[in-house]
Every structure is written in C-alpha cells, then in structure tokens.
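Workshop exercise sheet. Pairs work together: one partner reads the sequence aloud, the other fills in the structure field after running the prediction. Swap roles for the next sheet.
Pair: D.N. / O.F.
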Amino acid sequence: MRQTELFSKTQKSAPKDEESKNAQLLIQAGFIHKEMAGVYSFLPLGKRVLDNIMQIIRQEMNAIGGQELLLTGLQNPEIWQKSGRWSDDAVDVWFKTKLKNDAEIGLSWTHEEPLTGLMANHISSYRDLPVYAYQMQTKFRNELRAKSGIMRTREFIMKDLYSFCKNEQEHQEFYEKTKEAYKKIFDRVGLGKVTYVTEASGGSFSKFSHEFQTLCDAGEDIIYIDEQKGTAVNKEIIDDPELGYDKSKLKEAKAAEVGNIFTLGTKYSQVLGLMYQDEQGNKQPVFMGSYGIGPARTMGVIAEVYADEKGLVWPAQVAPFQVHLVQLAGGQEQADALYADLQNAGVEVLYDDRAEAGAGEKLADADLLGIPWRVVASKKTLEQDSAEVKPRNTQEISLVKTKDLHEFFESNTFKTGAGRGN
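Structure field:
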C-alpha cells in the first residue's frame, strides 16, 4: 500500500486525554480512533494487526477441532432469566434496551446461555458429542470505568469457545488441549516469553480456573510467579491452603490477563435442558467448558510490552506490514522499482511515497508505526545500487544490494503467509 493512499494520518503528539500507553501510541500512529470513553474504532492499520491476531487464534482453534460460528449480539431475556443472569443484581455489566413494541432485550456480554440453548437443537445422543464451537464476536460490557485503552473497553471482540462433552474426563482432555493451544497462540503473537499459565479462581463455575497473564506494567492483576516451573498463581487465591503456595519463594509481578479457560460443568446444561442419551439409554447433562481470548486486548498488551520511546514495535507475525519502504530525496525511481519488486515477491509493503514530507518526518513516522523492517531509498543508496535496511527493534543499519533485497527478505521469512496469520 502506498502511504499517499492511506487516509489515516499520524499525529505529532499523543492525545492528552488518554492515560494508557497503548491508546496514546495507537491513536497517535493512526491505528485506532476514540469514539468515546472505552469505545474505539479500528482504522486500516489497526484492522490489519487485529486481523492477524484473530487469524492466528482461528488457526489454533481449528487445529484442536473448533468449529467457527457467529451468534447474535441481541439477546432474548428469557433464556438468561432461566439461568438467573438477567437481573442487574446478578450481572452488573448488562447493556439493555427496548424494541419498538416495548419488549426488553440485551446486548451480549458473553454467550454461555444462548449457545447452550442453540445446542439443544443439535445434541441429543452420545454420538453427537463432543462439540467444540467458537466465535469471534462483538461483546458489550457496561464497565464502570474504562481507563486502559483497548485493554479494557465497553465494546470489544472476543474469541469465545465452548466445549460440550459427555463427561468430565472427556472435558478435561480437551481442556488440556486448549491450554496448549493458548500457549501456541501467545507464542505466535510474540508474548510467549512473558505470558504465564496462572491458577485463578473459578468464580461461580468451579473452584479453580486458568488465566493467561502477561507481564505488563499497565496490567490490573498481581500474580506470583514460580520461575522454576514457569507457572503462576493469581494474588486472589494464593492464600488458599489447598494450593500450598509459599509466597516467599515466588516473584510478585503486575500482569494483564489476555485469556482464560473455565470448567463450567453441568451448570448451564441442567438448567437449560441440554441433555443427551448415553449408550445405556439414560439421559445425562452435557458437561461444558468455556475458553476466552480478547484479540484487541491482546493487541493492546503487545503495544504496551514492546513499545519504546520512539513508538510502536510490532512482532513480525502481527505487524500490519512487514516492510516500511521510505522514499527520500533522489530515491523515487529506485523506491518505485523496489515497491514493485517486493510486492511481486509477496512481501507486504507500506510505501511512504509522500512528496511533501521531509526525511525527518518520514523516519520518525516509520519508528512510530513500528513495522518490523525499514527500507530507505535515497540518492545515496541509488549511487551505491543498494538500499538501507534497518530492523525496527535494533539500531543496526545495513546496506543491501538492490539485486539481493528480494533474497534478503525471503531468508528472513517475511513473505506473505510465512509464519503469519494470513
């Protein structure tokens, strides 16, 4: 894409009404637009990052047998009343409204109830199980205070997967598969080394659950890390005697939750009538689990973890483009040729072809946008039949012969689809 065709623009300074680093940088760089507190639109560059994260998640969910669907955002109160979660006393984050006929409806904040009700039309026998259904769908939560940029918002996309199994043993086997799939996801998006499988409260579903917590100064949670085992426990349950943790041997850290997995058991299947006939002909409640990841929240955490004093720094697998080609004075002809060559080779390129912007502005914008590789074409590089190549996350600058540039990026696996979510 040519930068002159990109309608979003960078800003000279970060917005003053944002406290979080991720929102400041993402707005300044033109990745997102703030509609109101806790509500953000994703502009073309931001949408590309979000799509890459979502595609990585999709690939790993499909790999463990997940089937993707899309449920409605509008919610019928009837099924929620059966589970006891329609009342504002039970759930305080509902957005509710009324239809023209004065009937009350809600905007989805999660989907256990509606999917359980839907599955009653498709599951009746042990032969129908197990089923692993997931979606990437917009959720609405009436948060009291949204202050962490895209890490905590009132409208957001969630990947929520729900498992429907014959019994606890079958569920537990899938639960462990999902745990491993989540580890792969966070490895692939660049957070694997700073994300811990963390024991946490199971809330009203079970005694314990697992969260995926990423070390982050902007995080809202405190975790205690066992560095030898590479695991962690949430502060809220560390004093539970059943767990047997010794805080003096663990490292305390701030973290942001990027995913969670829960055992739901038969809580919803029993109350909503999701039953199956076993091999002996007896009716049994389906055993359920729930597994969530926030793709935009993950994007915000990546921005927080990797950003430096110059701007964003995207890991290659989620970056909006792999190469930021910058044309400086005297390098237009070379830059145009490089743009065509790299595109033909399947390399994703953002080409800064702006005639009115000076060298300082272009290089500063390249740092702010955070694309993994910067390639500069100028009068100087043209004279040497080379291009100036610099990784965003180092200060190392190399001159690479123009004829070798294609091979250089091939060897660095930055062709479209090479290890990315596309």
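Discussion prompt: The CA atoms of residues 335 and 377 lie 5 Å apart. What would you look at next?
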